[in-house]
Fold this sequence. Notes:
The chain has about 70 residues and is an all-alpha fold.
Amino acid sequence: MPWWLSLGLLAVAALLWTKGRRNQDDVIGLLQVMIAVAAFMVVLLGGRPMLLEVSVLALALWLPRAASTQ
């Protein structure tokens, strides 16, 4: 996948994510967020940018563990 297409899809994903989070209608907002996640996954899995995969892995490892309520 060309780099310009990856950047374009990431820009569209970011735009849809922010618009979906600010949308007053829950159904349309959820649809926009789902399309944003799909565009991000196309870039992540289809383009094979190693820097993006490593950064997502680092973010996943950095996240704190969920607190147990026991």
